[in-house]
Design goal:
- This protein has 407 residues and is an alpha/beta fold.
- The protein has ten helices and 20 strands.
- The strands form four sheets. It has a seven-stranded mixed sheet with strand order 16-15-14-17-18-20-19, with helices on both faces.
- α9 links the parallel β17 and β18.
- α2 packs across α4 and α5 packs across α6.
- The longest helix has 18 residues.
- It is globular and about 75 Å long.
């Protein structure tokens, strides 16, 4: 490392050094031995080992357990406009390489640490970019980064009309940040509602009031996989939100699809999406709690569906609640397996990082045993490639998706 570094230094313990040298970009407060020099919250600082070896440079967060989020491991990097422009271009070029061309109009452009932007999410919905800044380091640099984001996309011929900030996530409080949402900058569309086309299906997306950033982009190719099994079948889509799996199943040739969600507003949007795609004649919509609906359907003694899709919200967002989440996942999967006829099909997912694949699979085996059925695995899938997984950052690996036949 050069001797004339301009940044303060955080000296990291031996354990923390091994963690960082293993490829993880986070340095926890408990692994910091001392600070050399002073810096403001959100500023850049170097991480060094006890022997003074340079480990990387990152954002300081005074209020988070993650005290330093590394941005670079190259001591020669200068964090100017060209640095961030290059990072944005890398992220966009990656999406152009791994997605079908028609999917670039609705995709995740920046996925936090997986793209070298700790705490930043950027989703594209047609002509609107929706951003979440979940680290103080990104928050203080957004006025630098957002214009560059627009420049890179527009220079590539992409039609982007504005940026909407969805900073209403509770996790911001861990960084000492407030919550809020609204348009960034003076130039933007009049309405926060736009339309996207994914897998040939049109959706109305409300980036102001929809869940997360407005729509769940990570399941795009899993929806296609489910649709391939739907032809001629009676489908129950649980936790449908605005109808994405249900609409894919209907477009895939399902005999009939029932879409269920506990949110009346989500169901109304799903119904409108069905009309928009001329699929409403093969669909019906129900506002209900899945934990109550599945036992009620089972009690009727019939087998009204031969394909059930379970795509629930995250049942756990911390290690403390994994046990209760596992019980919730088991309940709905057990009920679905009991409700399906022999030879029926099950699609089931978990979007929680804290429910790792081995634990989720253990739960599925227990649910199948209790239901008295066997599972024939068709596919095991993960999130779409615009949500890339870094093997050295387990937190980027979160979505599990399985297709089974019940035998």
């Amino acid at each position: 490392m050069k001797a004339d570094r301009a940044y303060p230094r955080f000296v990291v313990s031996a354990k923390g050094t091994r963690w960082v040298e293993g490829g993880h970009p986070w340095v926890y407060a408990e692994e910091l031995l001392r600070e050399e020099g002073s810096c403001e919250n959100g500023a850049l600082a170097d991480a060094v080992s006890e022997k003074g070896k340079y480990l990387g440079t990152g954002f300081v967060s005074r209020e988070s357990k993650i005290r330093l989020r590394l941005v670079s491991r190259n001591a020669n990097d200068r964090f100017d406009n060209e640095f961030w422009r290059r990072r944005i271009r890398y992220a966009w070029d990656y999406r152009k390489a791994v997605l079908r061309g028609e999917d670039l109009g609705c995709c995740r452009i920046v996925f936090g640490e997986a793209d070298g932007f700790p705490g930043l999410t950027v989703d594209r919905f047609h002509d609107i970019l929706v951003v979440q800044t979940l680290s103080v380091g990104m928050e203080v640099r957004k006025e630098q980064i957002f214009p560059l984001l627009l420049d890179v996309l527009r220079e590539d011929g992409q039609d982007v009309a504005g940026i909407y900030e969805r900073n209403d996530a509770a996790i911001r409080s861990l960084e000492g940040l407030g919550q809020g949402k609204g348009w960034w900058g003076e130039t933007h569309p009049l309405s926060p509602v736009t339309e996207i086309c994914e897998n040939g299906i049109y959706y109305s997306v409300d980036v102001e009031n929809g869940q997360k950033t407005g729509f769940f982009l990570d399941q795009k190719y899993n929806r296609l996989a489910a649709a391939r099994l739907a032809e001629g079948r009676r489908v129950l889509d649980c936790f449908t939100h605005t109808g994405s799996f249900a609409l894919n199943a209907a477009k895939g040739g399902a005999a009939h699809v029932t879409a269920v969600d506990v949110s009346e507003s989500a169901i109304e949007t799903a119904r409108r999406n069905a009309v928009r795609n001329a699929l409403e004649e093969r669909m019906d919509f129900l506002c209900a709690d899945i934990f109550e609906l599945l036992p009620a359907l089972e009690a009727q003694g019939s087998k009204p569906y031969d394909f059930i899709i379970l795509d629930p919200p995250a049942f756990t967002k911390s290690r403390k609640t994994v046990g209760s989440a596992e019980r919730g996942y088991k309940e709905i999967n057990y009920r679905a397996m009991k409700l399906l006829p022999r030879g029926g099909y099950l699609a089931t997912a978990s979007c929680s990082h804290f429910m790792p694949a081995p634990l989720f699979e253990k739960m599925l085996r227990a649910a199948a045993a209790d239901a008295g059925v066997e599972l024939r695995q068709i596919e095991a899938r993960q999130q779409a490639p615009d949500h890339p997984i870094l093997w050295n950052v387990p937190e980027t690996d979160y979505l599990k998706f399985y297709l089974f036949q019940v035998v």
